[in-house]
Amino acid sequence: MELKLDGLCVVTDGRSLVRDLSLKVLTGQVVGLVGPNGSGKSTALRCVYRALRPSSGTIWVGDRDLARLPLRHSARTIAATTQDGAVDFDFTVEEVVALGRAPHLRGNQALGARERALCVSAMERLDIGHLAHRGVLTLSGGERQRVLLARALVQEPDILILDEPTNHLDVRHQVELLALLRASGLTVLVVLHDLNLAAAACDRIGVLARGSLVASGPPEDVLTAELVADVFGVTASVVPHPLTGGPQLLYSIGSSR
Ligand SMILES: Nc1ncnc2c1ncn2[C@@H]1O[C@H](COP(=O)(O)OP(=O)(O)OP(=O)(O)O)[C@@H](O)[C@H]1O
């Protein structure tokens, strides 16, 4: 299902956090949103998973205006993981993952065999099967992040919204997660700080700076040394990935040695 942000604006206390953001994620595409700290990435995502009402603009989910969709309908269609991955209660891992089915159930309806199998499969895909009976509050940051991703997958959404899903993950789990996203066939909008991961995993990249989209397109068109210097204030060399030919950034870190 296609996701389209059309002229999205968020104004809080007279300050524009997101300015006239238009961005399309075609069905089954992975689109990365990158940009410096405070550039409005999470604010834009919060509008898509309905934690925040935009000041103006429209979010189209397929051919439907998100603001007019019943909450239960959008909860079935869009799954999200947030940046801090906060979990307040000491549920077990399998209980948290099962919560992903909530938009599909009525009241206290129990999970059926298919739904339980879905939860087991998602835990296996995220390499957390061995943690099923652990309390989530006892988990490491990366383990907890994988639990929340499993919960998002069992929701069986059409659209996944992920805010820095790799930030606590070790390199193996980063690579596995991005491979899983690419193989999922879902429409994915993901905030990533690691530009090299974004280049490797995304069909297209949008760059936000001070709330505005300053570039968007395939990674090789967007991730240029000039853009990285302009937007992030960092000197980088862009070299082709030896296997894929995609752009990879090498940073110079000043040193007296
Ligand atoms: N509720 C709010 N009230 C006032 N300012 C806010 C609010 N929420 C976010 N901001 C500000 O809006 C700006 C954009 O925040 P946002 O979290 O969207 O940035 P971000 O690009 O996701 O940053 P980061 O990379 O650090 O996660 C920041 O300056 C932030 O302090």
Overview of the structural elements:
The chain is an alpha/beta fold and 257 residues long. It has a single domain, classed as P-loop containing nucleotide triphosphate hydrolases (Rossmann fold). It contains 9 helices and 12 strands. A 6-stranded mixed sheet has the order 6-7-8-3-9-10, with helices on both faces. It has a 4-stranded antiparallel sheet with strand order 2-1-4-5, covered by helices on one side. A two-stranded antiparallel sheet has the order 11-12. Strand 9 (204-209) and strand 10 (212-217) form a beta hairpin. Helix 4 runs antiparallel to helix 5. It starts with a strand and ends in a 6-residue tail after the last strand. The model has no long low-confidence stretch (mean pLDDT 93). Bound molecules: adenosine-5'-triphosphate. Adenosine-5'-triphosphate binds next to helix 1. Residues 3-235 form the ABC transporter domain. GO terms for molecular function: ATP binding; ATP hydrolysis activity. Keywords: ATP-binding, Nucleotide-binding, Transport. Pfam families: ABC_tran (PF00005).
